[in-house]
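Worked example

This section walks through a single chain of length 51. The input is the sequence exactly as stored; nothing has been trimmed or padded.
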Amino acid sequence: MVDEEPLDEETLRKIERSLEDLRAGRVYTLEEVMTELKEGERRGRRGDGPR
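Given that input, the structure is written out below as tokens.
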């Protein structure tokens, strides 16, 4: 299925910003993200971090 609606300016800006991040190497590996999420869960269960 193809969406025929054109993208709005805000969406186009966000895509361009994302591409700039990729080109500059501002990315996280899946492993880094999973580690961060697990640490957040542990903080939440201990009650010493935001939920």
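What to look for: The two ends are 37 Å apart (CA to CA).
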